[in-house]
Amino acid sequence: MSTRPALTVDGPRFLRGGREHRIVSAAVHYFRIHPGQWRDRLLRLRAMGCNTVELYIAWNFHQPTPGPARFDGWHDIAAFVREADALGLDVIARPGPYICAEWDLGGLPAWLLADESLRLRTSDPSYLAAVDQWFDQLIPILAELQASRGGPIVAVQVENEYGSYGNDQAYLEHLKDGLVARGIDCLLFTSDGPEPRMLAGGTLPGVLATANFGSRPDEAFAALGAFRPDEPLVCMEFWNGWFDHYGEPHHVRDSKDAAEALDGILAASGSVNIYMGHGGTNFGWWAGANHTGKTLTDPGYMPTITSYDYDAPIGEAGELTEKFYAFREVIGRYVPLSDTELPAPSPRVAPQSLTATRVATLRDSLDLLSNATHRPAPEPMEKLGHHQGLVHYRHRITGPAGAATLTVDGIRDLAQIFLDGRLVAVLERDDPSPTAELTIPEGGAELEILVEPFGRVNYGPHLADRKGLVAGVRLDYQHLFGWDIRVLPLDDMAALTSAAAAGSAAEAAEGPAFHHAAIELPEAADAFVAVPGSDRTLVWLNGFLLGRLRTEKGPQRALYAPAPLWRPGDNEILVLDLSGTSEPLSVELRAEPDLGPVAPAPRY
Question: N or C terminus of the chain: which is more exposed, having fewer CB within 10 Å?
Fold first, then answer.
C-alpha cells in the first residue's frame, strides 16, 4: 500500500514528512456545487493559493430517509476528494455527524425527529445507534482516502463546535473512538469558538483543539493558546463573509478588512481554513435557519435564503472577486502560489424575458403529487416519514357554526388558510396571534391549510424543529379532529410538465398554481432566474428544484441556475407561484446575480 507523509503535530507547529508545514485551506461544500463544477471551483481555490480544501459531509444529503446511504452521482464524496487530490490539494474532512453550515437541521437527517424522545447530539442510545449505522457506511470511504493509504485526507474533525451546544464528553469520546475503530488514523481535531466554556465543552484530551473566528486573531489565538499551550494555532473557520436570512440585507465584508484579518492569522504563524472559499447554493429545500428565542415557540425564527454566496472570495457562480485577489496577495507572502493561469469567468446566458403559462393549480394537482394519510390530529411531516416539501391539511367543518375564530398553533413555518377553496388568511410562525376569522355556512365547509416549511434550525439549542403543523387547530374553544394530510415532496414533476407539453392551461382559480415556460438555448451557460411578479416561488429547471424566492422580503431576487443543468436546445422552467397571483407570470433570465441591498457582515 502506498502512503503519503502524515500531517503531525510537533509542539506549536505542523510537520509533513519531517518538514514544517502550514495549512492554508478554504472551505467548499460538494453538496452546494453541481458535480459538473466541482473541478472548476477547486481550480479557483488552488489559484487563490490554498494547499488544502476543507469539506463538511452532510449526513441528511446522503441518507434523507432511513436505510442505505447514497454515495453515487452528486453524493459521491470519494469522487470529490479524488478531484481535489488530482489538483494537488490536501483534504480536511469534517463528517460531523452535526455540521451546522447553515444547512437544514445542521446536516442531521429529519427522520431523527420522528422520535420525540430522542435527544440529538448526546449519548442517547437511540441517537448513537443512528450515528453508528451512518458512520458504518461513511467512515470506511474516508479511511481509504487518507494519506496513510495514498490519499489526500490529512485530518478529520470530531463533531463540530460542540462546546457551543453541550458538554457531553461521553458523546465526543464515542465519536472519536468510532472514527478510530472504523479506520481513521490521521490527525483528529475539534473546532470551537475561542471562549473558555466553549473550548472546555467541545474538546478532548489528546485531540488537537482549533478555534473559529472572523476578526481579532490576536485575541482569539491568545485564548486558544492559554487553553492549549504548545499546540499549533489554527483558525479552522475564518469567517471572511456571512450568510443571509430572508428580510435582511445581503451581508458583505470589506475586502481590505478581511485581508488584514487573514494576514494577522498567518503572521502569528497560524494555519487557516477560510470559511467560505466558495459558498455555493442551498439548492432545493436544503437551506437551514437560525433561532434567537429562548424557546422554540418564542419569536426569533430566521430562515436562510437559497444563495450561500457568503460574500466569499469565489462568488456563487465562480466569480473571482476583489476579495479573491486580496487574499491571494496575502497568502503569497507566506506560501508559494500556484503558477497556473487564473481561471476565466464562466459563460453566461443572454438576458431575456419569458412568458410563463399557468398550467395547473396546486389544489387540482394534489392527487398527482401525493396520497392522503388520515390522522386524528395534525402531525408534522417527520411523523409521516417525510423530510421535505409542502404539507396540505384538510378537514370538513360541520355546520352550523356561523362566525368563529380559527386558531392554528404550531405553524412551521407559513400557512395559507382556505375555506371552500377561498383564501381567508396567511399566518406565519412568529405571528403573536395565529388566528383567522371564519364564517361557516349552515351546511359546513371544507377547511384546508397549506403549510410552507422553511429551513430547519441548524444552530443552537432549538435543533428539534419539526415542519408542518406541530400542534392543534381549534374553532373557538373546540379542537378540530379528523384530518387528511398530504406531504408534497415535489421531487417528481413529470406529470405537470407533461400537462404543460400537451398545452393544457389551468382555470383562473384562486390559490397557488404552476406556471411553465420553455426556452431554447444554443449552448449551456450559467444564468440567474428571477420571477418578479410573484412574492413566493419555487423554481425548477429541467426538473431540478433550484430553490425558492421571497421577492418582497428579499434580499435575493434571482436564483443561480448553473450551466450543467441547462441543455443545448430545449429547456423547461416550472414555477410554483405560492402567493397565488392572478396576473400572468414572466420569468427573467439574467446574466448577473441579484442578492439585494447590502449591509456589513457581523464581526465575530
Answer: N
pLDDT tens for residues 445-469?
999 999 999 999 999 999 999 999 9
CA–CA separation, 356 vs 369, rounded Å? 21
The secondary structure of residue 224, as a DSSP letter, is H
Active site residues: 161, 237
Going by pLDDT thresholds of 50, 70 and 90, the confidence category of residue 322 is very high
Contact by Cβ (8 Å): 283, 546: yes
Instruction: Give one word for 542, left, alpha or beta, with left for phi > 0 and alpha for psi -120 to 50.
Output: left
User: What is the β-pairing status of strands 414-419 and 445-452?
Assistant: antiparallel
Phi-psi region of 407 (alpha: psi -120 to 50; beta: other; left: phi over 0): beta
Render 475-501 in DSSP notation, one character per residue. Answer: ETTEEP--EEEEEE-----HHHHHHHH
| Interatomic CA distance for residues 199 and 225, integer angstroms | 11
Note the pLDDT tens digit of each residue in 475-494.
999 999 999 999 999 998 88
Tell me how far CA of residue 3 lies from CA of 52, 86, 144, in angstroms.
Answer: 18, 16, 11
> Three-state DSSP class for 574?
strand
Bond preceding residue 299 cis, omega within 30 of 0? no
pLDDT score, position 532 = 94
3-class DSSP assignment, residue 591: coil
Q: 157 falls in which pLDDT band (50, 70, 90)?
A: very high
What pTM, to 2 d.p., does this model score? 0.97
Cα–Cα distance measured from residue 414 to residue 428, given in angstroms and rounded to the nearest whole number? 4
